[in-house]
Write a structure and sequence with these properties.
The complex is a heterodimer of chains A (152) and B (442).
Chain A (H helix, E strand, L loop, with lengths): L2 H22 L23 E3 L9 H16 L5 E6 L6 H21 L7 E7 L10 H7 L1 E5 L2
Parallel strand pairs in A: 2-3
Antiparallel strand pairs in A: 1-4, 2-4
Helix pairs in contact in A: 2-3
Chain B lengths: L2 H8 L7 E2 L24 E5 L7 H20 L3 E3 L9 H6 L3 H5 L5 E9 L5 E9 L4 E10 L4 H17 L8 E8 L6 E8 L6 E2 L7 E6 L5 E6 L6 E6 L5 E3 L6 E7 L5 E8 L2 E8 L5 E3 L7 E6 L5 E6 L6 E6 L6 E2 L6 E7 L5 E8 L2 E8 L6 E6 L1 E7 L5 E7 L5 E7 L6 E2 L5 E7 L5
Parallel strand pairs in B: 2-3, 2-4
Antiparallel strand pairs in B: 1-6, 4-5, 5-6, 7-8, 7-30, 8-9, 10-11, 11-12, 12-13, 14-15, 15-16, 16-17, 18-19, 19-20, 20-21, 22-23, 23-24, 24-25, 26-27, 27-28, 28-29
Helix pairs in contact in B: 2-5
The chains are: A alpha+beta (152), B mainly beta (442).
Chain lengths: 152, 442
Amino acid sequence: MPLKTILSLIAVVALLAGCETASEGSGSASGGGQQTAAAGSGGISNDRVFYEFDRSDLKPQSRKTIESWASWMKGNPASTVVLEGHADERGTREYNLALGDRRAQSAKNYLVALGVKPNRVRTVSYGKERPAVAGHSEQSWAQNRRSVMARR
Amino acid sequence: MNPAARAFYSQLALLTILLVATVPMRPALADITIDITRGQIEPLPIAITNFQGSNEEEIRLGRDIARVLTADLERSGLFRPIDQAAFIQGLGSLNVQPRFGDWRVIGAQALVQGAVRLQPNGQLRTEVRLWDVFGEAQLVGRAYETPPDNWRRVAHIVADAIYKRITGEDGYFDTRIVYVSESGPAERRVKRLAIMDQDGANHKFLTSGQELVLTPRFSPTTQEITYLSYFNDRPRVYLLNIETGRQEVVGDFPGMTFAPRFSPDGNKVIMSLATDGNSEVYTMDLRTRKIGRLTKNPAIDTSPCYSPDGRQIVFNSDRGGSQQIYLMDADGGNVRRISFGDGRYATPVWSPRGDLIAFTKMKSGTFYIGIMNTDGSGERLLTQGFLVEGPTWAPNGRVLMFFREERGRTVRLHSIDLTGYNEREMITPTDASDPAWSPLLP
């Protein structure tokens, strides 16, 4: 096989390998409640936790994620965060505002239980107004039922 | 706001109503009436002639008034305006006396005739008569004086008068709709408050779209709207003055306030306050700034709405384990559940007539708009879809408006009769949601 072909093949294989690695961290969840990595968190692998339909209780994986938030905040004692609570589109507007608030609070409560001072954590609910993904399938909705930790 | 619009909104004693009786009113043998609560009705064939004038401007106004009035009556689903091309009797001879045979032969049961005059004092004078074609009798005779710029309101008030005479019910055409105009991608939706006449005319944006705004509702007594704004990323209930555009936060609450409505006397705003993840119903008196707390329950308590007599409140709560509709007295006592069907219930709104509560229902992935008696009995679903939500009552308690979104497509306002018939899409410049119907304009 000519050298040029071998080099091309190696290049192609390297390119494909690179693509696979990139897609692992691309942040697309395939099912409900799965944790995904999100870009730009700077030291935190995961900036969000997910919920079941019409629920605000934390799942074991969610607790692990929030524990990483607590660690980060303890390591950055000047930092403050906003916890955003969100709901999917399969509910009505005002109830979803209340549900988003409950979700944000459930995440805050655990953060505070882990030792973070409450005044470092502001909560805000966006109800169903700010979906993470546009889409009308259970896959989309599962990604939208979330609390997100944002640094601001 | 331009001076004409300011005049439009600030005139409380707007119209001089004179009863004009020029033909003795014989009792009609087969009087025209429509029972609008009875299922599907055959619309009443009605002939609406252009209102007459003696110069070019008057003729134009007369045509415009007839056009707006015709559209109102047609949109109600209860009237079938006959094409003017079919009319036999000319306006000149009609002015003297209707030739009822000419109107009977084209199938009209009712006839509307009018005249407009631009008076030396600058006012527009409009006269209108409604005739029973078969009984050969005048049913309505009115005259109005207004600034000429108010001609649309004259058309709506005439439509209301005709509607009332034929159905026995108050009309709803001299009203406005406030709603949320939507644009942009779902993840970054831009929402603006907007207001328009109930026929879509005089459309105006009230906010810029810089802040997320939701759920506007009219004051029953003043030119104000209450709504939710995310100004400064802090969701709070605000008041907006329609005439001046001035916005003012309601109270100084330590957490998100949302789901606001006015009390029937206009003195209070009732809303939810969320603190520590718990949403409760609160009121604030706009005059005294006194705050009242109405619910004490770790459940979600939201979407409160007063009965028209102000003595009860219907609201949304999941205190029983799922999203349902509850009643309480105005002081928060005597809480009882009234929704018992299969599914989740939301957005309860009390009819201005006091007799029904409209709501959104969700069951097995489908949304519904429905009505029930105020004790929860007689539940009736009017329409359904992938997403239909947020009913608001017309002031006569006979028509509802809500918003409808089909999966992946646009979201628009729709109106529907409480019989479930005559669903129509409302034409708006953009996607639209969260409609609220004004009272009849003063």
